[in-house]
Amino acid sequence: MKNIDYGRTDGRRDYIFEDAMIRRDICEKLVRLMSESGYKETVTPTAEYFDVFSADPTRSMGDNVYKFTDEHNRLMALRCDCTVPIARIAATKLTDTPLPYRLFYCQNVFSAPKTGNALTESTQCGAELIGTDPENTIEADIEILELAAKSMQALFGMDFRIELGHGKLFTTLAEIYNIDPETSETIRRLIETKNFASIESMKIPKPFKMLPKMFGNADNEDLSALDEFAEETGSEKIREIIDYIKNLIIKLKEKGYGNCLSFDLGLVGRLDYYTGIIFGGFVRGLGHAVLLGGRYDNLTANFGRDLPATGFGITVDDIFDLLKNREDNKQPEQPLRPIRIALTKGRLEKKTIELLEKNGVDCSPLINKGRKLVIPLNDGKFEVMLVKSRDVITYVEHGVCDLGIVGSDTITEYGSSLYELADLGFGKCRMALAGNAKYKNDPENFFGGYSKKVLATKFVHAVERYAAEKKVDVEIVTIEGSVELAPILGLADGIVDIVETGDTLRENGLEIIEEIFPISARIVANVAATKLRKKEIDEMLSGVLKV
Ligand code: PRP
Predict the structure, then answer these.
(1) How far is the CA of 462 from the centre of ligand 1 (A)?
(2) d(CA 39, CA 400)
(3) What distance in Å separates the CA atoms of residue 226 and residue 224, rounded to the nearest whole number?
(4) Cα(483) to centroid of ligand 1, in Å?
(5) What spacing in Å lies between the alpha carbon of 127 and ligand 1's midpoint?
(6) pLDDT, tens digit only, all 547 positions of the chain
(7) Which atom belonging to ligand 1 lies closest to the Cα atom of 429?
């Protein structure tokens, strides 16, 4: 191939010299710990039949899997997950081996990236405990949680957090209150992103509204909230789940991990897959979980043998990034940096400053910032930076900022893993389809006929979703600014854009054809910061960011 830059490895990595040693050291620490804990190494092929990964309908892996055909024209897949091949082995090859199986792995996984710069090849190290006595589920869960905690300890000392939830809690609640599947999915998504404002505005039973706020530390004060939740539901099944979580916490506290534990009943991702506890491992300096695990009792049955199972996996490359960053910046012994808030420049700026000042913050350092980019406020208790709306999302998702203030249009368009903690009620406008005045409030006519409509926008995801919901076929042209020009110049039939006063549309002879969704300013938070610095974030929300 010509014109290849051999120095670039998009989505893949070269580990060279001391970097390779840091990476190896991480793997060796984990492998040693798992071996010493009685787990046996399992190495599975780099390529499996594609059906191995698509066998489980609860794990939609298809889209991100690298597929190819082998010499017999069979559809193959690069290993995109380590647990599934291990479940295959447990179900098919270990039938003569006495139960339970304690297995660990340290190998690479491959997945086509969802976002531009995600790694397509990464190293996962993890442990699976398969086939324990079904009567003693809790013992197995404690064993695997303790191993997860020890793994984090081997890498970070006691400076980490393991957070516990339960994969059956939400589905049980939906059953009890007879929630239809569509509404249930809407609520689930809002809980997953801790979208307090939207959940609060829904007409749904109180326990669903409580769920996203049900997270806290392992101290008794926070744990008592779990009992209040169980009482509110009045359900025996929910009581059992809550008691199970509490028991796990008590047992792990006895093992000395009390300060490293928290719970979150709002962990509601991948619920079909996890059949019991779910947990994540968080560490200061990384905006997302480095460890993920839980109970998955239905997986081995896909390969013909029904075995209870629980386990976890750690992404070695994430840990490498963190340790390398700490080494480069000599950070480990430094005190925690102040909470950082990314504010949106322009449209929301004035109202944001008004909000801070109303809550007693002297914003003169921000107003007179000159060329300074990071501005300490309230005697350095927190820091703010004014950035473009899309960058608010980037900084918060990566965890370099803990909180952000940004429009819900930007969250809808670019947000993928952050929490939406409050609706600030200002910056109100609408996302709308607009075009020739003859289609004013008449989307049926606009989309009528057989020709595909061309829509200009910078909100590509919003348009894709809108078109899918309306079941119309559209062509999207991406325009970065003054999108109203596109229909005027004849490049598009209509636009999808923000409308605030409507002046821009009016002055250019365009009308709203259909309003798509309302927009307002929101407070967003980094997922890991919400767990690791909960008290400080709560204080910010009830103090300087109080709506
Ligand atoms: C937005 C939007 C419209 C205009 C609508 O642009 O893209 O052009 O505001 O506001 P109105 O209804 O009050 O007239 P913005 O000013 O944010 O700049 P942009 O074109 O660079 O996105």
Answers:
(1) 16
(2) 36
(3) 5
(4) 9
(5) 52
(6) 667 888 777 778 899 999 999 999 999 999 999 999 999 999 999 999 999 998 776 666 667 899 999 999 999 999 999 999 999 999 999 999 999 999 999 999 999 876 666 788 999 999 999 999 999 999 999 999 999 999 999 999 999 999 999 999 999 999 999 999 999 999 999 998 899 888 988 999 999 999 988 999 988 878 899 999 999 999 999 999 999 999 999 999 999 999 999 999 999 876 678 999 999 999 988 889 999 999 999 999 999 999 999 999 999 999 999 999 887 776 554 567 899 999 999 989 999 999 999 999 999 999 988 888 999 999 999 999 999 999 999 999 999 999 999 999 999 999 888 999 999 999 999 999 999 999 999 999 999 988 899 999 999 999 999 999 999 999 999 999 899 999 999 999 999 999 999 999 999 999 999 999 999 999 999 999 998 898 899 999 999 999 8
(7) 12
Ligand 1 neighbourhood includes 347 CB (under 6 angstroms): yes
Nearest atom in ligand 1 to the alpha carbon of residue 484 is 8
Q: Is the CB of 507 under 6 A from ligand 1?
A: no
pTM of this prediction?
0.87
**Cα(116)–Cα(11) distance, integer angstroms:** 8
**Residue of the CA atom closest to atom 5 of ligand 1:** 499
> Atom 8 in ligand 1: which residue has the minimum CA distance?
482
Angle at 153 between CA 117 and CA 139, to 5 degrees: 105
Domains (range + CATH), the chain: 9-157+294-334 (3.30.930.10), 161-282 (3.30.930.10), 339-427+521-542 (3.40.190.10), 431-516 (3.40.190.10)
The first and second tokens of residue 359, run together, are 């809550």
Q: Return d(Cα 364, Cα 94) in angstroms, integer.
A: 69
Ligand 1 contact, 181 CB (< 6 A): no
500 lines ligand 1 (CB under 6 A): yes
- Candidate of 500, 511, 516 to mutate for ligand 1, largest count of ligand atoms within 8 Å of Cβ: 500
364 CA from centroid of ligand 1 (Å): 28
- Selection from 179, 186, 184, 149 nearest residue 164 by Cα: 149
Give the dihedral of Cα atoms 536, 207, 418, 58; nearest 10 deg. 140
DSSP state of 132: -
